[in-house]
Write a structure and sequence with these properties.
Layout lengths: L7 H11 L6 H10 L48 E3 L13 E3 H11 L12 E3 L3 E3 L10 E3 L4 E3 L1 H9 L6 H12 L7 E8 L4 E7 L5 E8 L11 E6 L21 E9 L5 E2 L1 E9 L7 E5 L6 E4 L5 E8 L4 E2 L5 E5 L5 E4 L2
Antiparallel strand pairs: 1-6, 2-3, 4-5, 7-8, 8-9, 9-10, 11-13, 12-17, 13-16, 14-15, 14-18, 18-19
């Protein structure tokens, strides 16, 4: 089960087909930021269209660090007392990315949102800590539910996260991620992080104490059109990937397999030429020679983030100085110290 949201390519097609007048750039950028579709790669050499794709490695070493961002370890065991058990669900790491039935996902979302009467959209199996969509209803405010794990946050934690949705400290970011997922990740090791003041967003990647699970968490200080904040968590079990964990090369089961996910959107378009784009992404580079990941669209400036130990990276990027066509997509690649391309992601 993966969340399905619009991608920037759809925005481009819409703008091109409808011949829009000069755009409200702020509105379109926000719409694009909310748009994400996670796509799977089929076979060992398939190409990916658009800007959104996940690829996850098969294993992971614990206690990695991300050079440059210096995220380090956040949280401590004392915070665990602020999470309570959830009936029928294991605690902590055991509940992260737990594969469950559609019915169980609905039970958990009902515990989280008791006032919600809608059912979740159809799915085969669901995964704890992943986003599910409620059936569409005109006028309904909430549209999504992050399927809860087994750690219900206390009222005090929920209030703290609501008061400070985009905190400065890594510890508080992990607190907010834990509140989102109902999975206590306060003691997990952050291996990559980035934050954009322009987008008012932060993204971080953290691994569990055993190194078997990984979480990517996105936080935002802004609210979307529906009044909800743009927030999300994605978990994966790196030692047991399934068909819904697409990898860039499905045949590669190495400890440092490439992985990548990104989503974004643009605006500032007049006569088919645009100037604004924003995108959040994260992943892992298998090559140990990679030291940076660079993002660019059109002739705009390059945005660069470090590749830390273990190959992890995360970025929250925006540009208002690029010039690109509606059909253009951002270029994302990893580079070595000499500036040579190591891996092209998009």
């Amino acid at each position: 089960m993966e969340d399905v949201r619009e991608v920037s390519a759809a925005l481009h097609r819409l703008a091109e087909s409808e011949g829009m007048d000069p755009l409200d750039t702020t509105l379109l950028l926000e719409r694009g930021r909310r748009g994400r579709r996670r796509r799977k790669l089929i076979g060992t050499g398939g190409a990916v269209a658009g800007v959104a794709v996940i690829a996850l490695g098969a294993s992971l070493l614990p206690n990695l660090s991300s050079a440059g961002n210096q995220p380090g370890v956040a949280g401590d065991q004392a915070a665990n007392s602020q999470f309570g058990p959830v009936p029928g669900i294991p605690r902590g790491e055991a509940s992260a990315d737990q594969r469950i039935t559609h019915e169980e996902a609905e039970r958990r979302c009902a515990l989280r949102n008791p006032e919600e009467t809608r059912k979740l959209e159809g799915m085969g199996t669901a995964r704890a800590g992943h986003m599910a969509m409620y059936e569409f209803k005109v006028g309904a405010k909430g549209t999504t539910c992050i399927v809860p794990g087994g750690d219900k946050p206390s009222a005090a934690l929920v209030a703290a996260a609501a008061k400070d949705p985009l905190p400065k400290s890594t510890a508080d970011k992990l607190r907010n991620c834990s509140v989102l997922a109902w999975i206590d990740v306060t003691g997990w090791q952050v291996v990559a992080s980035d934050e954009s003041k322009v987008l008012n967003e932060a993204a971080l990647v953290a691994i569990s104490p055993t190194g078997h699970k990984v979480v990517e968490c996105e936080l935002s200080g802004d609210k979307t059109f529906s009044g909800e904040r743009e927030r999300n968590t994605t978990f994966a079990t790196l030692t047991k990937l399934g068909s819904d964990d697409p990898v860039l090369n499905p045949a590669d089961k190495s400890a440092r397999a490439d992985m990548y996910e990104a989503a974004g959107g643009g605006g500032g378009c007049t006569a088919g030429t645009c100037t604004k784009y924003g995108m959040t992404g994260w992943g892992r580079v298998s090559s140990k020679a990679a030291v940076t990941v660079r993002v660019r669209i059109g002739n705009g400036p390059v945005y660069q983030v470090p590749v830390g130990e273990g190959g992890w990276f995360a970025y929250t990027w925006t540009t208002t100085k690029s010039v690109f066509k509606l059909k253009d997509q951002p270029k994302v690649a990893a580079y070595d110290r000499a500036g040579k391309v190591i891996k092209v992601f998009a």
